[in-house]
Amino acid sequence: MKALGISTITNYAAGIIDDPLSHEDVIKVSAQVKDDFTNLLTEIIKGMVL
To answer: Can you give the residue ranges of the Nucleoside phosphorylase domain (predicted)?
Structure first.
């Protein structure tokens, strides 16, 4: 059985920086990576043998 795990880290600085992160910060990062992440998933799915 083959498996693939993939994730996007949207709160990487949590616990690293002194400033607290807000939900808005996480949403902002997710919006920034949305297109790249969608393209990555699209290409992975295209390459799958079904």
So the answer is: 1-46
Structural domain boundaries in the chain: 20-50
Q: Please tell me the distance from the alpha carbon of residue 23 to that of residue 14, in angstroms, as a whole number.
A: 11
Closest CA to 6 of 49, 38, 28, 31: 38
- Please say if the pLDDT value at position 13 is more than 80: no
| Cα angle value 26/28/30 (rounded, 5°) | 70
pTM of the model: 0.67
Helix (H, G, I), strand (E, B) or coil at 36: helix
Q: Dump pLDDT digits (tens) for 24-39.
A: 988 998 999 999 999 9
